[in-house]
Amino acid sequence: MLQVRSDQVESFQDVTSISFTKSLLKTFQKEFPRYVEIEDSMLLSLIVDLLKVARALGFHSEMHAAIYAMSQWLHGFSVEEDYPDVRAVLENPLFSVDEKCQWLERWINSQGEETNS
Question: Tens of pLDDT along 8-56?
Fold first, then answer.
């Protein structure tokens, strides 16, 4: 029987995490060109911090973590502090991660509509 050691799993997770983080960096730079002037290392550090918080909140899949990171990115990195309703949803154990992400996506879109009005 094939057995995978925990250090092998951690190593694989680190590689995929680095790849995902760099991919997210490129996406953010493409979608938000004003950040292109900031050094990649600084942006990468911000994204790593966002992904750590996302994972602490239970957003373990890349899609879920990306949605969380995007919501923070769009609203100045203090969404939970500035918007109590967002914090209430993110911390509510009755919502699944999928429900939290769906709610965040709707919230992000509604914020964009308010800005455009």
Answer: 445 445 435 778 888 888 888 888 777 667 777 888 888 888 888 888 8
The total of other beta-carbon atoms located within 10 Å of residue 25's CB is 18
Quote the CA–CA distance of 83 and 89 in Å, as a whole number: 10
The two three-digit tokens of residue 21, written as one number: 């983080």
Residue matched to tokens 């493409």: 30
Query: Distance between CA 16 and CA 90 in Å, rounded?
Result: 25
Report yes or no: 75 and 90 within 8 Å, Cβ to Cβ: no
**CB neighbours (10 Å) of residue 15?**
10
Tokens (6 digits) for 48: 């790593």
CB 65: neighbour CB atoms within 10 A?
A: 26
Please tell me the distance from the alpha carbon of residue 84 to that of residue 78, in angstroms, as a whole number.
11
CB atoms under 10 Å from CB of 53, counted, come to 16
pTM of the predicted protein model: 0.70
